[in-house]
From TrEMBL:
<comment type="similarity">
    <text>Belongs to the short-chain dehydrogenases/reductases (SDR) family.</text>
</comment>
<protein>
    <submittedName>
        <fullName>SDR family NAD(P)-dependent oxidoreductase</fullName>
    </submittedName>
</protein>
<dbReference type="GO" id="GO:0016020">
    <property type="term" value="C:membrane"/>
</dbReference>
<dbReference type="InterPro" id="IPR002347">
    <property type="entry name" value="SDR_fam"/>
</dbReference>
<dbReference type="Pfam" id="PF00106">
    <property type="entry name" value="adh_short"/>
</dbReference>
<dbReference type="InterPro" id="IPR036291">
    <property type="entry name" value="NAD(P)-bd_dom_sf"/>
</dbReference>
<keyword id="KW-0560">Oxidoreductase</keyword>
<dbReference type="InterPro" id="IPR020904">
    <property type="entry name" value="Sc_DH/Rdtase_CS"/>
</dbReference>
<dbReference type="GO" id="GO:0016491">
    <property type="term" value="F:oxidoreductase activity"/>
</dbReference>
């Protein structure tokens, strides 16, 4: 959790090949841009293939391309990894970043919603690891970066299914990190608080819009800039860090939770009560 702020030097990732899932938007698009600026060749994979292709086109021909891949489809993720390895001879980095959020009271969630978030946020990451890790072992190195969330370290309110999936991603990443070290394969989990991406606009709690829920509700005035997070992530990869926790308030909250869990739980109960009141008032 060191605070490395340096943007990787141009050329720092020259000759390296990377896959970024969820690369058609937000954090994935920012990671793609940071990787290309640092000299890597990048494949942006997204359910929305057109969005991935548009982002890739903006990053410069030859350095990036966009493909339509659904991370819930294990065979499709395997085919993507096989294709990149066949083309470039290796895969240096995979960013298992595609994900969705789901705000709401747990009793209101349908099993279909549970399945969908588990499929994308957990199985999507598992599929990336299952396809890329053996390649990295064979080639004697590589780095796996999994996008979790602050919700993977702390139990944010009214996001139970999301929190569960992101805790799974943190657990997978930290356990694999110890196992992978002997093969020269690094593993990092990204755990940001709110980041300024379209995901913030996708949820709703009662009549409270997602952006208000994630930002105003939690007293966050300025969400993390995705480009700054991407630069920070590449620095963390270079430094072999386990977790990227951003911004500084998130690191402080995480520390408080480990030292005084009863305090953060009380705060969480208060936060939920406030959100329920707001949702009822604006309905
Ligand atoms: N923005 C935040 O506040 C925030 C905070 C913490 C963690 N995260 C995590 O960051 C990751 C990226 O989110 P973002 O904020 O950039 O959101 P975003 O909505 O801008 O981007 C997510 C991308 O994932 C893609 N995607 C969704 N389902 C997919 C699937 N089945 N297969 C392939 N692609 C799929 C979407 O099409 C979209 O392009 C997610 O895992 C999210 O949980 C976001």
């Amino acid at each position: 959790m060191r605070a490395v702020r340096k943007v990787p030097a141009p050329g720092a990732y020259a000759g390296r090949t990377a896959i970024v899932t969820g690369g058609g938007s937000g954090i994935g698009a920012a990671l793609g841009s940071a990787l290309v600026s640092a000299g890597a060749t990048v494949v942006l994979a997204d359910l929305d293939g057109e969005a991935a292709a548009t982002v890739a086109a903006g990053l410069g021909p030859g350095s990036a391309r966009g493909v339509a891949v659904d991370v819930t489809d294990a065979a499709a993720v395997q085919a993507l990894v096989d294709e990149v390895v066949a083309e470039h001879g290796r895969l240096d980095l995979i960013f298992n970043n595609a994900g969705i959020s789901l705000i709401g009271e747990t009793q209101d969630l349908t099993l279909t919603q549970w399945d969908r978030i588990i499929d994308i946020n957990i199985r999507g990451v598992v599929h990336g690891v299952a396809a890329a890790y053996p390649v990295m072992i064979r080639q004697g190195g590589g780095h796996i970066v999994n996008t979790a969330s602050m919700g993977g370290l702390m139990a944010a309110g009214l996001l139970t299914s999301y929190v569960m999936t992101k805790h799974a991603v943190v657990g997978l990443s930290l356990a694999l990190r110890s196992e992978a070290a002997a093969y020269g394969v690094g593993v990092t989990a990204i755990c940001p608080a709110a980041v300024n991406t379209p995901i913030l606009d996708k949820g709703q709690f009662g009549a409270v819009r997602g952006r208000d829920y994630f930002l105003k509700g939690q007293g966050i005035r300025k969400p993390v800039d995705p480009d700054a997070l991407a630069a920070r992530t590449l620095a963390a990869v270079a430094g072999g860090e386990a977790l990227v926790v951003e911004p500084v308030q998130a690191r402080m909250a995480y520390r408080l939770q480990r030292w005084l869990p009863a305090v953060t739980q009380k705060a969480s109960i208060r936060f939920i009560a406030k959100q329920r009141k707001l949702a009822a008032r604006t309905r």
